[in-house]
Structures are given as structure tokens and as C-alpha cells.
């Protein structure tokens, strides 16, 4: 019996865990790992600073139902201006009626997954769920960029006979030390920032700054639940509320309990600043003085030492039913507070000096308003000015990337020339102050003025590394770096198109394909860029690519498996268009590879008209490895307005077939022809040995070599958004102001008239 007893005991005791995360997949995996055990604490630490942004997307808790435990998601940054940012929508699953589950989010930026301009959306959401919580805590968070609510619950009404009074309660809800801004910015989204649809036993909303929330129904709002027989405690202390209603027709309360919290409720409203912006002050919408502080039908209200401007303490006509203990209410003038006392109120920065009288005017000598506001001294701005001495594509990055920097900020500056594991475009020669490391960290004590020095190695005419918008679909892609970039000369900015097979008529795997046979057909088609192939390699060896994808049915040109019928055009391939005016000694180079199915031989063709092609080189692929495909172009390709390069596979001479481990071939040749083809192009470079740069002809917007009335028509079409082609931006900018406007039409007309 004793042995049987011990066998029934658990073999292990649940130990709390801590996981560090740096990206979306790690954060999602850590959330999914929450073990849902009563009494345990699982902690996720988000690594990074204010430059870190993780878009988790729409997330639903993996455990259903939630029976207990505490989930903490936090960071190591305690300065609210330096916390990492998370964009997400967090959906709860059922927790049942017993309040055992707790969660805490702290030291983070909390944003909605689609931002404040979305048509709807909230971060924490329980929709018709049985969700009881022991505690929900949000501390030291920068809450911003939300379409509707930070928190919203809608109770489960499945049993209409059951009262929802005291059902699915929250024992404790806290929001403290937070900045809350850029919420409910659309007139069609008038929701409460915190929207309770359940009984709350204790609410602590202390030490927060609220601003730029023009269309909120309320900052804290109640609906659905009947708590009139309960005794909830509400603390709304030491908040700074710079808020007014953007809806001039309705009075908007800060705290709207309505009739949902009854006469046994206790409200503590102490040491707050309630300021409704007036004309000329932080006006992003038209504010008025219609906002009120508390809407409630009963309860004990302890209201002490609040500074109020533009707010009504209570809704008119209902104060007779309230038990109000009030003292120390002041206007800003009474408190010696003026709009100009804030560090930069019009910019949403409401810091005050600790030397301000408000710092000790609260109950028991405490500050009035959020303690976050008070600083020993206002920050000293330090400018960071970086210039580049080298080719136009050489650049730099500053992390974190902010509009303003201040004394004691720590910034990381990195010089970059678009070099990668496979190519060196330019070498970094050091900084103007003698430092030789390309990446350096600086603690700001004063303005920083530095020059990054580079020497060009590869003579770049035009190149593609597909770093812009990797992972998107498009009909063409402009070169990432090119000669003259940044100098108003886009003459050498090449383009890549992908010739595709239109599969829109495909039905149940049977082919009815229409092939795209000319460049003019491309506009309605799209191809895909992808980031970081091959994922199995070290990060520095991975490359962004354009993906050529050929449906199996047309690999051979007809709906058969007889590849002897192959027609070289009847296959997806990439076409690059280059301007080689003034250039000699041309060389084209790219890298090709596959981690799926591909033609063993990849080839380069050249053409001057995009129709008649000549092959100049080929390379044999090895599965999962990059191969350089390169060739010198013939002299006839030099000094041309347009030279076309085609990169294409030849399926008539064998295949690379992948369906297993790296380098492993597991398919037969026949199986290969039954599969789609995936052939990747990366790291494209057109270089030269000599170049007399084409400067362009000012006014020649249509690139026909002369300035005529046709150019006026072309410029006008561009201004009207009609996307004329061809169109030379540098030539069309006749007045040289960097914009295409009516004055450029006037300038072109002047050139035509000899003026």
C-alpha cells in the first residue's frame, strides 16, 4: 500500500522558467510554452531597446482553458523612453469562473498589431469568454498606436438565465507608471481605452501620463457587468491627464462607471492633473471643455489635491446620490502651473522640473501628477551629424534611430558600403576622428560631427541585393545601388522584371497557361522577393533573392513530360535592363542557387531589343550552394540606352532535385518534371572598367534625346499620377528643386522657346 501511495505522487515538481527572446518566432514560442500550472511563474524577457520592434501579429493563448499560474512579459529596460516595442493583438482563451490566472506586462512598448489607423482593434481582448483573472498588471509601459482599446472584455452570455453579476471577476487590475498616447485617433473609434466587461474587485490606475486620445469614449469604461452589490475599490491617483473630447457633441468622462458600480464602491481620486488643452496648446483635434472626471451613480468619492482645467468633476444632475469628500481642488493658476512650464508640451513631452511647486503640493507632500514627469533638469539636446566621403551607395546607420538625441544617450554608429559575404563594393577607411572600427558606440556629451571615409573597389554601374521590401511581390524592382545615386542622377538605376507564366486559369491542377511573352505584358504580373536564403547557412552567407517559380506543367512547353519539346521562352526567368551610356568594359555577375527543384544549368543571355537573345555563359548548380554566374559583355553592349540580360535555367540537360537533407538528391528525373521549379537569383552586379557619365538632357523627360512638346506632356502626366513610361526624373526636374511640379513644365517650355 505504501508503494502504491508513492507511485501516485508526481514524479517532478514544476519549476518556474525564464526565456529571453529577440524576435517574433522566439516570442511566440515562449508564449506557447506557458505551462498553465497554478502557483507557478513563467517569465519572458524581451531583449532590446527602443529601436527594437517585434510585430507578433494576432496571438491567441495556446492553452485552453487557462487554469492558473502567472505569465510575466518584460524587458531589462527601466527607462520608459528606451523600452522595446511589441505590436500585437492578444486574445484570451477561457479561464473559467475561478480567478487563478495572472499576467504582468512591464517595461515594454505595447502597440496594436495594425496600428492606430486600423478600422478596429484592441491589444488584450476576451470576446464572449469565461475569463476570470486573479490579477492583470501593466507597469512602466509605453502604450501607444492602438486603434481602439488597450484592454477589452465581453462576457459569455451563453446562459441567459444566469446573472452576470460577480461572474468571471478580476481580483486585481493595475496600470501604473505608463505613458498612454496615440489611441482612438479616429472619430469612428470612440471606445474606452480600458473597457471592463466584468466585475473588478480592486482597480489601481496610478502614476500614468495620458495624452493624444481625442476620440475615446472614456479612459476607463464599464459595460455589461452588474457589480452594484459588490464593494470594489478604485484608485486613480497621481495621473497626468492632458485630454479633451474630439467629439464636441458628447461629454467624455475620464472614469465612466455609469450604473455598473454601485453605492458600495470607493473611489480615490488624489494628486492628479486634469488639463484640457486650450487654443494653441497641443491641438491635434478640436478640443473643448466638455470632458468630466467621474461618471458614477453612487459610491464614496475621496477627491483631494487635484489640479483641474477644462474638466467638470462630475456629470451634472447626479451628484446628489454621491458621497463626496473633496478638498484641495486647484486651477493651474492656483498651483502656479503654466503650459510653458512643461519641457515640450506641444510635442507631447510633459516633463516638469522637480523645483516646480507641484512636486511637493500633493497629499503628505507628494507630487501632483505622475512622478514620471519630474526631472532634476531638462534634457540637453545633442545633434549627431554624419557625412560620407566615398561612393554614393556608402552609408551609415545610427541605433537607436530617433528624431532627437540628448546628453548621456548612447548611440551605435555603423558605416556600411552594402558589402556582403560574397562581394566587396567599397572598403571602409575609418572615421574623421581617427577611429578605424566601422561600428562604434558613443555616449553623447555634446554634438557629434563625423565623416565616414570609403574607397570604392568594385566599379558599380548598377547592383541589386534585394534588401528593400524583401518578402514582397512586385512587377519590377529598381537597383539598390547604382552610379550617381544620391546626386539626382538616376540614369544608371537598372530594373529587374520576371517573365512569368500566368496560372490564373489553372483548375484542379490541370494547366491552361498563358505565357507572358513580352516586357509590355509584365505590368499586370508580379514576382516575389524573399529574405535570407539559405536559412541553413550562417547568417552572413544567406542572401535575399528573387524567386523564379515554374509550374511543372509547362517546364517542357506543353502539358506532357517530354522535355525534348522544351521552348526556352516557356519558363520563368529574370530580365535585367541596364543603361550603359558612356560605359566600357562591362561585366555582369549574379549568384544562382536552389533548395528545391531546379535546372542543373543556369545561363546568361544578352539582348539589345529584349527579343533577340544570345547566350554568353552558364554555370552548373550544386544543391543548397550558391554558384556565381558571370560573363563579360560584348563591345556592342557598350554605350547603349538599353541592354537586356536574361538569367534562365535549361531543363534539357538534367536537374537538381531536392527533397531531403542539404545536398541530398532523392527524386528521379521524371519526378523532377512533376514538381514545380524554384530557381533563385541573388547579388546582381553590372560593373565597368571605364565610364564617361551620362549627365542627362535637362527637360528630356521622355528620354528621346530632344526637348519637345512631348516632354511637357510627359511631365504633366507624371504630375497627374499617370505613371508615364519612359520617364527620367532627373531630366524632368528642370528647375532642380528636387520635385516635379508645374514650374518644371514652364522650364521645359522655356527650353523649347530658346529661353
Q: How would you characterize the overall build of this protein?
A:
The protein is mainly beta and 755 residues long. It has a 16-stranded parallel sheet that branches. β48 (597-607) and β49 (614-620) form a beta hairpin. α5 runs antiparallel to α7 (742-752). The longest helix is centred in the C-terminal third of the chain and has 11 residues, at 709-719. The radius of gyration is 33 Å and the shape is elongated. The relative contact order is 0.05.
Layout: helices, strands, pairs:
Elements: H1 2-8, E1 18-21, H2 24-32, E2 41-46, E3 53-60, E4 70-75, E5 85-91, E6 102-106, E7 109-112, E8 124-129, E9 133-139, E10 142-146, E11 151-155, E12 170-176, E13 179-183, E14 192-196, E15 202-206, E16 209-211, E17 218-222, E18 233-237, E19 240-242, E20 253-258, E21 266-270, E22 273-275, E23 292-296, E24 300-304, E25 307-309, E26 312-314, E27 323-327, H3 332-335, E28 352-353, E29 374-375, E30 384-389, E31 395-399, E32 410-416, E33 426-431, E34 439-443, E35 448-456, E36 460-464, E37 473-474, E38 477-478, E39 481-482, E40 495-499, E41 501-502, E42 514-515, E43 527-533, E44 543-550, E45 573-578, E46 583-584, E47 587-593, E48 597-607, E49 614-620, E50 627-632, E51 643-657, H4 669-673, E52 677-687, E53 690-691, H5 709-719, H6 729-732, H7 742-752
Amino acid at each position: 500500500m505504501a508503494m502504491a501511495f508513492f507511485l501516485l505522487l508526481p514524479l517532478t515538481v514544476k519549476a518556474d522558467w525564464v526565456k529571453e527572446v529577440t524576435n517574433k518566432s522566439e516570442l511566440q514560442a515562449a508564449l506557447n510554452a506557458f505551462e498553465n500550472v497554478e502557483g507557478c511563474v513563467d517569465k519572458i524577457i524581451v531583449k532590446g531597446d527602443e529601436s527594437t520592434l517585434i510585430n507578433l501579429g494576432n496571438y491567441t493563448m495556446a492553452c485552453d482553458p487557462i487554469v492558473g499560474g502567472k505569465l510575466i512579459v518584460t524587458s531589462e529596460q527601466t527607462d520608459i523612453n528606451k523600452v522595446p516595442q511589441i505590436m500585437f493583438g492578444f486574445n484570451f482563451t477561457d479561464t473559467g469562473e475561478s480567478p487563478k490566472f495572472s499576467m504582468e506586462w512591464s517595461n515594454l512598448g505595447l502597440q496594436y498589431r495594425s496600428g492606430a489607423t486600423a478600422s478596429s482593434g484592441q491589444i488584450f481582448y476576451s470576446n464572449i469568454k469565461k475569463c476570470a483573472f486573479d490579477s492583470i498588471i501593466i507597469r512602466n509601459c509605453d502604450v501607444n498606436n492602438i486603434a481602439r482599446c488597450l484592454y477589452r472584455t465581453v462576457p459569455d452570455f451563453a446562459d441567459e438565465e444566469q446573472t452576470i453579476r460577480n461572474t468571471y471577476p478580476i481580483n486585481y487590475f493595475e496600470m501604473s507608471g505608463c505613458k498612454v498616447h496615440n489611441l482612438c485617433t479616429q472619430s469612428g473609434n470612440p471606445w474606452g481605452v480600458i473597457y471592463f466587461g466584468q466585475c473588478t474587485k480592486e482597480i489601481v490606475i496610478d502614476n500614468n501620463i495620458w495624452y493624444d486620445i481625442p476620440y475615446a469614449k472614456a479612459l476607463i469604461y464599464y459595460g455589461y457587468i452588474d457589480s452594484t452589490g459588490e464593494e470594489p475599490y478604485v484608485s486613480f491617483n497621481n495621473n497626468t491627464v492632458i485630454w479633451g473630447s474630439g467629439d464636441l457633441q458628447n461629454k467624455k468622462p475620464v472614469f465612466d462607471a455609469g450604473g455598473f458600480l454601485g453605492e458600495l464602491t470607493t473611489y480615490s481620486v488624489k494628486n492628479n492633473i486634469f488639463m484640457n488643452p486650450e487654443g494653441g496648446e497641443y491641438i491635434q483635434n478640436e478640443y473643448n471643455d466638455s470632458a468630466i472626471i467621474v461618471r458614477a451613480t453612487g459610491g464614496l468619492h475621496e477627491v483631494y489635491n487635484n489640479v483641474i482645467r477644462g474638466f467638470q468633476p462630475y456629470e451634472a444632475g447626479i451628484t446628489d446620490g454621491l458621497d463626496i469628500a473633496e478638498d484641495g481642488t486647484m486651477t493651474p493658476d492656483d498651483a502656479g502651473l503654466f503650459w510653458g512650464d512643461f519641457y515640450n508640451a506641444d510635442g507631447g513631452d510633459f516633463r516638469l522640473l522637480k523645483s516646480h511647486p507641484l512636486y511637493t503640493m500633493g497629499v503628505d507632500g507628494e507630487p501632483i501628477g505622475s512622478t514620471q514627469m519630474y526631472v532634476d533638469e531638462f534634457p540637453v539636446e545633442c545633434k549627431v551629424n554624419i557625412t560620407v566621403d566615398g561612393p554614393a551607395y556608402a552609408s551609415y546607420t545610427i541605433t537607436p534611430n530617433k528624431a532627437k538625441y540628448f546628453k548621456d544617450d548612447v548611440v551605435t554608429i555603423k558605416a556600411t558600403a552594402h558589402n556582403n559575404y560574397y562581394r566587396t563594393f567599397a572598403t571602409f577607411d575609418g572615421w574623421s576622428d581617427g577611429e578605424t572600427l566601422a561600428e562604434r558606440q558613443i555616449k553623447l556629451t555634446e554634438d557629434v560631427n563625423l565623416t565616414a571615409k570609403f574607397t570604392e573597389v568594385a566599379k558599380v554601374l548598377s547592383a541589386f541585393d534585394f534588401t528593400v521590401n524583401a518578402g514582397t511581390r512586385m512587377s519590377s524592382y529598381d537597383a539598390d545601388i547604382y552610379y550617381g545615386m544620391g546626386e539626382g542622377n538616376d540614369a544608371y538605376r537598372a530594373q529587374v522584371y520576371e517573365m512569368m507564366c500566368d496560372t490564373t486559369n489553372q483548375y484542379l491542377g490541370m494547366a491552361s497557361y498563358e505565357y507572358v511573352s513580352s516586357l509590355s505584358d509584365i505590368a499586370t504580373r508580379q514576382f516575389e522577393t524573399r529574405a535570407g536564403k539559405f536559412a541553413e547557412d550562417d547568417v552572413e552567407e544567406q542572401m535575399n533573392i528573387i524567386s523564379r517559380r515554374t509550374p511543372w506543367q509547362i517546364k517542357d512547353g506543353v502539358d506532357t513530360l517530354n522535355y525534348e519539346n522544351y521552348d526556352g521562352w516557356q519558363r520563368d526567368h529574370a530580365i535585367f535592363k541596364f543603361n550603359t551610356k558612356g560605359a566600357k568594359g562591362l561585366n555582369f555577375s549574379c549568384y544562382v542557387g536552389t533548395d528545391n527543384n531546379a535546372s542543373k544549368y543556369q545561363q546568361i543571355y544578352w539582348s539589345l531589343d529584349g527579343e533577340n537573345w544570345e547566350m554568353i555563359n552558364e554555370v552548373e548548380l550544386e544543391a543548397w550552394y550558391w554558384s556565381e554566374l558571370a560573363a563579360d559583355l560584348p563591345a556592342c553592349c557598350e554605350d547603349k540606352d538599353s541592354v537586356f540580360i536574361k538569367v534562365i535555367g535549361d531543363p534539357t540537360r538534367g536537374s537538381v532535385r531536392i527533397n531531403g537533407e542539404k545536398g541530398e538528391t532523392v527524386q528521379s528525373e521524371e519526378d523532377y518534371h512533376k514538381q514545380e521549379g524554384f530557381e533563385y537569383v541573388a547579388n546582381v552586379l553590372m560593373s565597368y572598367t571605364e565610364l564617361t557619365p551620362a549627365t542627362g538632357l535637362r527637360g528630356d523627360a521622355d528620354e528621346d534625346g530632344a526637348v519637345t512638346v512631348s516632354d511637357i506632356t510627359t511631365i504633366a502626366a507624371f504630375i497627374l499620377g499617370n505613371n508615364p513610361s519612359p520617364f527620367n526624373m532627373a531630366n524632368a526636374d528642370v528647375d532642380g528643386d528636387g520635385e516635379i511640379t508645374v514650374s518644371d513644365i514652364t522650364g521645359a517650355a522655356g527650353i523649347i522657346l530658346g529661353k
